[in-house]
Amino acid sequence: MEHVSFENVDITGGFWKNRQDINRNTTIHAIEEQFRKTGRFDSFALGWKKGDPNQPHIFWDSDIAKWVESVSYIIAKHPDKELENKIEEVIDHIEKNQDESGYFNVYISVCEPENRFKNREYHELYCAGHLIEAAIAYYNATKKDRFLNLMRKYADYIETAFAKDDITGFVTDGHEEIELALVKLWHCTGERRYLELSEFFIDQRGQNEKDVTQMENSGFVWKPSYYQSHLPVREQFTAEGHCVRACYLYTAMADLAREYNDGELLYACKRIFDDIANGKMYITGGIGPSCNGETFTIPYDLPNQTSYAETCAAISLVFFSQRMLSLEIDSKYSDVIERVLYNGFLSGISLDGKSFFYENPLEIHPDLGRKDRSVKEGYHTHYPAAKRAEVFLCSCCPPNVTRLIATLGNYIYSVKDEVCFVHQFIDSNMEQNGVTVTQTTEYPNNGKVVIKASGAKQIAVRIPGWCSSYRIDREYSVKNGYACVDNDGCDITVEFDMQPVLFQASHLVCENSGKAALCMGPVVYCVEGVDNGDLLWNIRISKDFKAEAVYDPRFGAKTITADGFRQDKTTKAYSPLSDTFDKIKLKFIPYFAFANRGESEMAVFMRIKD
Amino acid sequence: MEHVSFENVDITGGFWKNRQDINRNTTIHAIEEQFRKTGRFDSFALGWKKGDPNQPHIFWDSDIAKWVESVSYIIAKHPDKELENKIEEVIDHIEKNQDESGYFNVYISVCEPENRFKNREYHELYCAGHLIEAAIAYYNATKKDRFLNLMRKYADYIETAFAKDDITGFVTDGHEEIELALVKLWHCTGERRYLELSEFFIDQRGQNEKDVTQMENSGFVWKPSYYQSHLPVREQFTAEGHCVRACYLYTAMADLAREYNDGELLYACKRIFDDIANGKMYITGGIGPSCNGETFTIPYDLPNQTSYAETCAAISLVFFSQRMLSLEIDSKYSDVIERVLYNGFLSGISLDGKSFFYENPLEIHPDLGRKDRSVKEGYHTHYPAAKRAEVFLCSCCPPNVTRLIATLGNYIYSVKDEVCFVHQFIDSNMEQNGVTVTQTTEYPNNGKVVIKASGAKQIAVRIPGWCSSYRIDREYSVKNGYACVDNDGCDITVEFDMQPVLFQASHLVCENSGKAALCMGPVVYCVEGVDNGDLLWNIRISKDFKAEAVYDPRFGAKTITADGFRQDKTTKAYSPLSDTFDKIKLKFIPYFAFANRGESEMAVFMRIKD
User: Fold this and answer.
1) Torsion angle of alpha carbons A403, A407, A411, A417, nearest 10°?
2) Contact status of B125 with chain A (Cβ, < 8 Å)
């Protein structure tokens, strides 16, 4: 199955068009401003000296690279000379400062030049990977190959240093990314060496003595599973360690499984995907519950208040799922992509597009973040921030958000043989290799989708996992979660019934027993203190609640009002159970829109009352 | 109100007689064995040198002191030459090694002699306080004054160093204890200087520049409120910081409020007590929810799974409550003592008396303690241990348990004017200053209490806070939570109705909304996985449950069987709410008896089903 590239897809209206406009008009500029303020752009001049402000961080290269990549995707569809010139300035710096060998890394060059490729945790290949992705994106957008050539030179040097001359202190990077970037570089250049170098890194991971020794000697505090080096990758069947590292690896593993038709890699990827989707993913699509190393933990450990669920981790799960979908037609992959996009990913950016969450909790009680009154900063119990920030010290998420929104077109359509797959329901036009599709929909605010296609014999429309009833105005058969309809070139109308529905988590999730989350279509809802008063844990919703959904332009989506209950106040610390309630109206907003109206309590899962 | 000393009370049968026997016959010897093995006893010879095993810890003196104090209480009522000789050996070491000045401290003497009284966090005065308490207990038990005189000499030196010559690096100790010990020393010796020295420490706390500077200079990581130095004590109205330190301070504050008739101190103590009892105390009487510094946090922050609730903190709350009860006749103080004794204190020791909990969680899921798979030791999310230990590196709790069990007689009776108060319902005889009481009861396994007294005009019997109906076979009037009965010298029979009752926590406690804890009389119950299967969070109890209670000799208390429900298994990570249940029989055991049958899930609060 070939996914249709965003370059061949125009998002023409509705929910995501609005988000793409904000991305292009606001977010990309807001991030640029923050990255200029904090010295990230200037750092590419390699002028920093000890004592100067804004010491470069080990992964600043990747921050700028992801911004360049995002802007490249944007100007590919909306040419913008000013933005292009800003990228050219970055490339000027790189060209001027790149080492003769091809090496380029801001932090190492100005802070620890003696430690080039010595320490797995210095993110050099991670930064290189992002620079490569940026160069490819810029080349595709502009056909200008200066940046691409600089990065090819760097990739060639990496090949020499790691795979040929073995002159480095480690073999595989502590933070994966180079692996998937090299597959892209192969696709872009046709140079098979890059695919083979990716394969080299994938194959070496978890079975190279040098990697383990280097980490041990450097006093690194995490276990090998933290950076997915506990086993050879073909023997890794569970998602382990740092989430973003993990899913970037799994993405590359899936890439290689496809390129080499490698059954062992595919088997590992399938098991890992199921391990995530069945027990390590929040209902929002967020992954990685623990702030300790931003890691996966044990299955069904999905605490609400302390959920880490990094925005970048959600994004990395989209990448992994998308690769799996190209390997195996199964709506479980596109369901996960949808779950992430509308919830745990989108919550990472404010409605105005200017501020971000690094962590995406499922429940917030701001006071808890202030509970360790007698303990100094740094020893506090970790709770996710209750307010969004414009930039982080580790600001990986914001430019990761922009590149995903800019390339959202990648996730809507695929073509296989003479079947055109419609994975996501987004108002859009697509045209590729003689296949055209026009999709008209107000999804997720309405379950009606009209598809008009030419050049394809069949249309396969995903039946979303959340949907229990739907109608299609044709004969259809469902296969792998997709309703297949013969295409006659006329409008095909699909109607997914979209009502507020309570969803429960598995009985294996400790925190959510006796609770449910209100969802409508792909959108997970939440209650906020600002609408419902504080002490949200005292709120109940009944199993047979009545609800009303109304479009709210502030959120670009519907809010829901439902009958509920609030437990009565008690006067004593402990008293015989009274368990009495007042009837109240509950107001739900989309989870992705939480924390846009000041600091407030918030909860996704709420207790059920019979 | 004068509390009757344990020396004048014999616990004659039933629940606590059994516990005192285990304390005397087993626990005191088990602790001795562990303290010998770990070098704690030998350390008093001050022979340790760099490179030797078992380097003394800064508070080993207090471990041995509390063991000596416990044994002294035991031999006061059950003379035992062998045990007495073991104490004499400890005293020999102290006599031989005490500095000419009077100073004695194992750690400082052998490890950092240059740092005598230089660092607030070295627990020197804390250790001194425990040695003083031990010396008083031994003197009272044997009338031998050698140890007492050594400790008087030490106390005199402390007075000189801190209050007169001001030659120390700090003024008040980081860990309170000396303050309450000096009050006891005054009572024992009649030497008012000791009371005044206690007053000096109390008055200086929170308003001495030197203390703050010393802590800051030593790089100590906690805030002043951690060691109750954020405000002058008379301006402290909330319980803050390290729990044990806090309640030892509050105990001494209450002592001084009484000795000096100090209304400001009394006011502070009353507000602090209410702050604890109304919102910072678990239903078990445990206090201090946070492992970060073993501290109080914000009101109503009472998480179940991560509850710290140190055994020593529970004991310190008994001390504080007992002092408050002597200042103000109010059953809220004796209610808290009862709550702690039968639950969060007693859970700290195994049924066989040989092993201990430092932390006393309200909910255990052993797998959660192993959840941080990819993170090295030391970076794990902290969960309390699921298994008891025979000794801890910081083994303050075990000998604190033994001294409280040995002196349980202290908490049963008080006399004021011609009224005899019966606070706790324990099968016992009391005789003091012409007042005698015989109390016959199987409490807590039966609500019937028979009291026969002479020498008192009135008997005031506490009506327990948990009790909603009771009968007394006399006329009575209730005042401050005590039923007052004119004494005619005949049996007075009180019957508290004792049924299994569900208790809810305040609506301000996030974790326990929609949940309840089963209690019977003063005993809080729990469910364990070993009886009820794992995944206890899927268990429900209905509001109108039917229950049966049966005496179980293993626990010395009743177990309860009740009708309940178990939520059905689900197959998917997220699915539309089904919320279906199987009827099951739930088996409850007393909370104090949990974790006596291997590692198992456990829960006190469970979800309610309408």
Assistant:
1) -130
2) no
